[in-house]
Write a structure and sequence with these properties.
Layout: E1 33-35, E2 43-49, H1 60-76, E3 79-85, H2 95-104, E4 110-113, H3 115-123, H4 141-146, E5 148-149, E6 152-153, E7 163-168, H5 169-174, H6 183-195, E8 202-203, H7 210-223, H8 227-236, H9 241-257, H10 263-268, H11 276-280, E9 286-290, E10 307-310, E11 321-322, E12 326-329, H12 336-346, H13 349-359, H14 377-384, E13 389-390, H15 401-412, H16 417-433
Parallel strand pairs: 2-3, 2-4, 8-9, 11-13
Antiparallel strand pairs: 1-3, 4-12, 5-6, 7-9, 7-10
Helix pairs in contact: 1-12, 1-13, 2-3, 7-9, 9-16, 15-16
Length: about 425
């Protein structure tokens, strides 16, 4: 196994940076699966992604997760056995592919799930309804909405993942540029950077460019006071997803055509690993990432410049994008009863307070709040104002995060915007036939 050579192979690993969250690729058997088992009378098997970055750097997200898992182990007198996976490169099987296989085969008890797999497994009836948990009563409504499938709360996260633009404020100041608010502002900033010798102003990878699309597609839907009616129109076919998505895809095509994004590099680059080095070396002034990357030394937590995290450009100004990951319990899990007890503890306000304070993230509990690092204040201010879009919503009949990611990848591979819109129309047509 490839990862046996790594120093961190024996560490307990968590969902770290859920953004590594939205993980990686195709092909063969999961040869890079790492297992840690401990002999115990009672064991709960937990499956999650592994953070693939500097093995010697402190991983606060892992620490935060382990603290809450330790609470459950001690309170319940059992062992949580970690099994983890991450793709080595774009030719490997994706984490989503692996977790779907494992959940459908009842191989584990607890699973960390990305938005597309929450919806898929929820619709298949393979996840337990967690709405009866005491901790579920404290969830923010946005969390409940995003993780409810067919009336059942099938997943609960330990943090709310918010995506934003990470910008080198020093470079913006050097070229006398205001931080962008609209798509037009963003394009102008890129033009100025490129004319001053920064060849590729936007560092991108193959996973997160859909954040630009969501910000432009759904700014009005989620912030215009008519959300339920607009979603109902999409679900009935009265409105078209492609009409919402087109401006964002046209924007990405413009970025590619003008060389502001290197589409070929983005197509094969892993998250942070593909663009992180250039951003930290101040060769690229703009990247996109999740909230926790601003805290973690394995990502952008020790930038040598003034880093600011802002929302994505939209008609309503900087727009945070918030997809929902979450822990789910297999409906037919071998140790389902104990797994539910573990969930109750790790998603309690007491555990979430520890998690949020350690990892400095947005908590899914409406009762838990912590201060964020200064770099995140612009993004946090928008979220606190209630201004954001959801990157995943189980109430939409067409799954959003995974499908949009795949169709953006088609654009990177040379598909036209019209062809991408046809792909959305086909997905919507299929959803109406169900």
């Amino acid at each position: 196994m490839k990862h046996q050579r790594r120093k961190w192979r024996a560490l307990k690993v968590c969902w770290a940076a859920l953004a590594v969250v939205l993980l990686a690729s195709c092909a063969q058997e999961p040869k890079n699966l790492v297992t840690q088992r401990e002999e115990a009378e009672r064991v709960v098997n937990l499956f999650s992604p592994m953070e693939k970055t500097d093995p010697d750097a402190e991983n606060v997200a892992r620490t935060a997760a382990d603290l809450t898992i330790a609470m459950a182990e001690e309170a319940l007198d059992l062992t949580v056995a970690y099994k983890t996976y991450t793709a080595e490169d774009h030719q490997d099987k994706t984490y989503d592919d692996v977790v779907l296989d494992r959940a459908r085969s009842n191989m584990d008890d607890l699973y960390l799930l990305n938005p597309d797999t929450v919806l898929a497994l929820g619709e298949e009836g393979r996840l337990m309804d967690l709405s009866g948990l005491e901790s579920a009563k404290n969830l923010r409504e946005i969390v409940r909405t995003a993780n409810t499938v067919d009336g059942k709360l099938v997943a609960i996260p330990q943090e709310v993942v918010a995506y934003g633009l990470f910008v080198n404020k020093d470079l913006f100041d050097q070229y006398r540029l205001d931080l962008p608010q609209t798509p037009e502002d963003f394009l102008e900033c890129c033009r100025v950077f490129q004319e001053n010798g920064i060849e590729t102003p936007v560092g991108a990878n193959r996973w997160w460019l859909e954040t630009f699309v969501f910000a432009q597609a759904y700014a009005g839907l989620y912030n215009g006071g008519n959300t339920e009616a607009e979603i109902a129109a999409l679900n009935s076919g009265e409105a078209k997803y492609s009409d919402y998505m087109r401006p964002g895809f046209e924007f990405l095509q413009t970025l590619i055509d003008r060389g502001y994004i290197d589409a070929e590099k983005a197509r094969v680059s892993e998250a942070i690993e593909g663009e992180g080095a250039d951003f930290l070396a101040q060769k690229t002034p703009i990247v996109m990432a999740y909230w926790g990357a601003a805290n973690s030394e394995t990502a952008y937590g020790k930038a040598s410049f003034n880093m600011q995290v802002i929302g994505f450009p939209s008609s309503l100004g900087p727009m945070p994008v918030m997809p929902m990951t979450g822990w789910g319990v297999g409906a037919n899990a071998e140790h389902a009863e104990d797994a539910v007890r573990v969930m109750e503890i790790i998603t309690s306000d007491e555990a979430l307070q520890i998690y949020a304070e350690t990892n400095r993230v947005i908590s899914p509990s409406k009762n838990v709040k912590v201060d964020c690092v200064p770099a995140l204040k612009p993004l946090n201010d928008r979220i606190e104002e209630g201004v954001y879009v959801l990157g995943s919503n189980a109430g939409m009949r067409v799954e959003q995060w995974g499908n949009t990611c795949q169709i953006v990848r088609q654009l990177l591979e040379g598909a036209t915007v019209d062809q991408c819109m046809e792909a959305f129309d086909q997905l919507q047509a299929a959803s109406l036939e169900q």
